[in-house]
Specification:
Length: about 70
């Protein structure tokens, strides 16, 4: 993914669906984990409230990686 001045804002919708506007599609925790590994900057916001939930999503990624190695 190309570097930009601003981090990408990933939006989380009902049911935990994550939407990446750069791709124009939903994405998975695994894809976000790949973004972390690639040093791509992003934030995750609750779509309905705009609340920054990046930390909780990163914790989910860490837990998932711990289970799957």
């Amino acid at each position: 993914m190309a570097r930009s001045a601003e981090p990408v804002t990933i939006k989380r919708y009902g049911g935990g669906r994550l939407y990446n506007p750069v791709l124009g599609a939903c994405c998975t925790l695994e894809e976000l984990a790949n973004m972390v590994e690639d040093d791509d900057e992003f934030v995750v916001a609750e779509a309905s409230t705009g609340e920054d939930i990046t930390r909780s999503v990163l914790r989910q990624i860490i837990r998932a990686r711990g289970r799957h190695g």
